[in-house]
Amino acid sequence: MSLARLRELRMVGFKSFAERTVVEFGPGISAIVGPNGSGKSNLADALRWTLGEQGRALRSRRAEDLIFAGSANRRAVGMADVSLVIDNEDRMLPVDFGQVELSRRLFRSGENEYLLNRQRIRLRDLVELLDDANLADNAFLFIGQGMVDQALALRPEERRPLFEEAAGIRKHQRRRKKAENELSEAESNLERVRDVLAELRPQARRLAAQAEQQEARMVAGAELAAALVAGARARLSGAEIESQRHADALATSRREADAALGSLRDAEEQAAALTRALSDRADAEQRLRERLDQARGAVQRIELAQTRSASEASALIRDRERIAEERAAATSRAEEARRRMAAVLPEPDRGAEDALEQAEQRLAEAAHDADELRAAGRADEERASTARASRQRLASDAERAARRVSEGQRRLAAQQEEVGAATERAATMAQRAGQAAEARASAHAAEEAAEAEAQGARVAASEAESAAAAANEARSRLRAELQGLDARREALDAQLETGPDASLLRSARARGGRRFTDGLEVEPDLRLAVEAALGEVLSGLVVDAEDARALAEAASVMVLRDGGDGRTRASDRAAAKLEQGVVDAGGGALSAAFRLDPDAHAARLLARVMWVPALDDAFALRDLLPPGWRLVTRDGLVIDDVSVLRPAPGVSTLEWRATRDEVGRRQEKVRIELEAAEARATETATARASAETAVRVAREALDGARRARRIADETDRSTASAAENAARELAWQEALLERAQAETATAAEEAAQRSRELEAYDEQQTGEGASDEARAALAALETRVAALKSERDAAAEVAGEARTKRDRAMEDRRRAEVALGLAETRIEELGRDEVALSGRDADLVTERERLAGELATAQGRRDREQEVFEASVASARDERADLLKAEADASAARERLRVAENHSRQSEVAEMEARLQVDAAREGLLVELASIGDDGLQTLLAESEQAPPSETPGADELPEMLEAALDAALDTWREAAAAGAEPPAPPSRSRIAALRRRFNDVGASNPFAVQELAEIKERLESLEAQREDLEKAIRDTRELIVRLETLMTEQFPQTFEALEGAFGRRFHQLFGGGEAVLSLTDPSDLSATGVEITARPPGKKKQPLAMLSGGERALTAVALLMAMLEVRPVPFCVLDEVDAALDEANVGRFSTALRSLAEEIQFVVITHNRGTIEAADALYGVTVGDDAVSHVISLKLADLPEDDPRLVGKAAS
């Protein structure tokens, strides 16, 4: 039986195997059975994945699909972990281990881990290890149903890779491909090396010439540097002597200035004391002045009130005078009206009336005579005479009506003039009354607005006062609360200071450490449990391992930041059983009790601690505790496999810390609220002051508005009364006008009627004949009638004028009646105003008396304040005199200080000039030595007997090194001068000039030429060695490629020949007869030839594969694969339902053939066929539960007793 290469497969979180699953494989055939979808093929995928498979062969699109994704009854996991144990006693894998464990882990972040015997390796290392054992990319390790079908479905040329794999030359092809890539890379590297060599050789020649020039320049530079240093030493020594002399003078001047400054300071202190006293006095005087100003202000306000009262009294006097004047005027108008009313109306002009009547009578008689004359005519003239009489009467009536119309129109025009004048007067008075009413309404509105504003200001002031009181109360409350919180925080901090002391904590923090409890936050109901489980660790420090050694003596408890993960070493099955029991009891892992856990140290320490609600739950689960595990109850009891511990009584440290953190958060909140309250208090105080000012301004505005309203009321009453009188007069005139218009209209209508009657009569009489005599007489009479009409008209005019005069007199009497009514009304109004003024006069008298008393009191206070202020001013005069004396002393001291400072400045300038000469000489020397370079530095270092630097300084380092060397040389020169040594004689200027010309004639050179030349030579030697190595590697690689091609050319036909014989035997075995042949399509070209397969089942003729039935094709493919495994056996082989297409009879032959191959190969067969299962040595059943998790049940048939019913069933079958 074959060796069991695959020993054990362990899975957790891989695909459907969410729980930890262990499959132990034995030698021979292991059959894996189970319903579809139970996860059988996932076992094969786990083996593939552990051996480095990366592609689609794992039946997943993304890497994270390999991790159990969860189900409706099971949550997802975060990692897939698969381990494969391989027997390596024969050193199949090139490692010195008898048993090799290959592991692979995948996290949801996409990170992969590869482990060899639990040590991390790279994927590349894994592939190389498996490739040496022909386990990498070997198609015969995992054979599926698709591969069986593919073996026959491919064209002959496409089958070649399968036969190459069977011949074992795929490995050589991979090596050849790798060698070709390395050859291409080596040739490319060789080309680059040759290019670099071609560039470096000219550089080396150029640097050699520059190095020779640099040596000549170094000699000239060394001589020039020595001369410059000698000359600088002489100049610097003299300059330093001069600088020291001026420094001594400067020190003397500064001592004098210090003495003068002391005197000045004493005088100024005395003056300052007096100034402060005077300032205090000034403050007191200011307060006295303010009090005096307040007293004066009070006096002025009372005097102003008196002035206003006097002004108002004067206004009352003027109002009385105005009322008296208006009453006199009204009385005069009334008297005038009464006089006009008493005037006698003119009597009617009786003479004119009589003359008019006589003229009308004569006219009537003449007309009658004319009528009679006409009647004396023919008989037919009687009717005409009667008609003429009628006409005459009509004409007379018409004339009288015309006269009445004319008189009415005249009276109407006069009345219209009167109405116009009255209308104008009434409009003027109405306008004045309207303006007065508007002014009165405006005054009332202004008073109401002022009253509303004053009320609003009072309300705002009250609200501001309330808001200020509330803000102050809130501020006081918050201050008290903050003080209480501060005290409580201090008490909590003191209670928590039980851990490492301050110095130890600072030392730990300086090394990156911290308190263990810093940042730790625990669920409230599990604080006691966590504190009981951690114990003294809560008072410890978190440090690194190397820092722990330094702190070990001082610290009692330390937690290593890089310590172990604290995970259990108990079996996963025991831990899972305990976890399930704890969860069922209502508990859980104590490591999950942390809301915040920096670096997860607490969770690491509690990885083997579970919590349960009560002690009864802990005792019920105690027997399930793996070694090293503990249970903790919620109230802090710790239970392990040997004891039950109760923590010491006291308040929990975590409770204290949580309380302190809560107090801290409350402190921050209260501070923010206090800042807001302070701001509100300031705002409300400002608002209150503004509101008080607004109240004062509104009160003054209200007083002004009330005064304006009283004046407007009085004006409105007088103008309204005048407007009312004007309106009554206008109504009277309009009534007269209406009567005149009615009379005129009636007269006009009557005149028009008479004119129409006369015209009608004349039309009737037109054309009637008369005798000439009658006509002549009639003409004479008509002439007389005309004369009489003129006379009658003149008399009518005289009578009309008399009537007009009488009408005017009557109109004047009516106007006098109206004026009398107006005057009497105004006299009554003025009487009421006079009564009101009398009342206001009494009020003013009372107010003047009150103001006089207040003024006397205010004046007394003012006089007292004035006396106190004058006494304070008199007391301040002496102090000002003392201050003037102190200031005079200070002025004298300032003058002395000024003189001393002038001397000091002169000495300082001289000393500075001397130092500048030293600095100039120093800088000049440094600049010239810097231009010389390293030789200048070495010369300076020799002056102070210092060793030159081991490496040539760079351009950035040289200035600093020159300054340091010069400082050291100056110290050496000073010591020599102090010892009395004479400095060497300085070289002459001509000598230095000659050396400088020689140095410059050499020219600028590359100061690093020698160093660069050495580097170039070293690099050339290295590149030459690389060139030789690359040329040798290229030769070796080409030889390897030739050897591999030769090996593949020889190995393929040998293997093909052996495979051809094995295929024939396996075909005959599986079919129970018949024959099968393998042939090359192009034997002359073994590198590209295809492989043709022909088969002849028993009882049939030889025919192509396409003509075979499905079962025959499947059995032929199985024969080919078994032949390949026979010729090229593999350590193990996984067959995934390759027998699915075989019937029961062929399955039996397949099982027999499989048993024969199992002598050399370990098989893992995934199958549904009973015959294949019966041939197995071990049976593994895969099931899947409601939570979509796969489980494996194993059964080794060899371990069962012979009378086991399962074996009986197997034998019967």
What would you note in describing this structure?
The protein is an alpha+beta fold and 1213 residues long. The protein is 69% helix and 9% strand. It is built from 23 helices and 25 strands. The protein has a 6-stranded antiparallel beta sheet with strand order 2-1-4-5-6-7. The longest helix is centred in the first third of the chain and has 173 residues, at 170-342. The protein is elongated, with a radius of gyration of 69 Å. The two termini are 24 Å apart. Mean pLDDT is 76; it is low at 566-570 and 1207-1213.
Layout of strands and helices, then pairs:
Blueprint lengths: L5 E7 L8 E4 L4 E5 L6 H11 L28 E9 L11 E9 L4 E5 L2 E3 L1 H10 L9 E3 H9 L2 H12 L2 H173 L7 H26 L4 H117 L5 H9 L3 E2 L5 E2 L4 H8 L6 E3 L1 H7 L6 E3 L11 H13 L3 E2 L4 E3 L4 H5 L3 E4 L2 H7 L8 E4 L4 E2 L4 E2 L7 H113 L6 H161 L1 H10 L14 H21 L10 H14 L6 H63 L3 E6 L10 E6 L6 E2 L5 H18 L4 E5 L7 H14 L4 E5 L3 H5 L3 E7 L5 E7 L8 H8 L1
Parallel strand pairs: 3-23, 3-24, 8-22, 11-12, 15-16, 22-23
Antiparallel strand pairs: 1-2, 1-4, 4-5, 5-6, 6-7, 9-11, 10-14, 13-15, 16-17, 17-18, 19-20, 20-21, 24-25
Helix pairs in contact: 3-20, 4-19, 5-15, 5-16, 5-18, 5-19, 6-7, 6-15, 7-14, 14-15, 15-16, 15-17, 16-17, 19-20, 19-21, 20-21
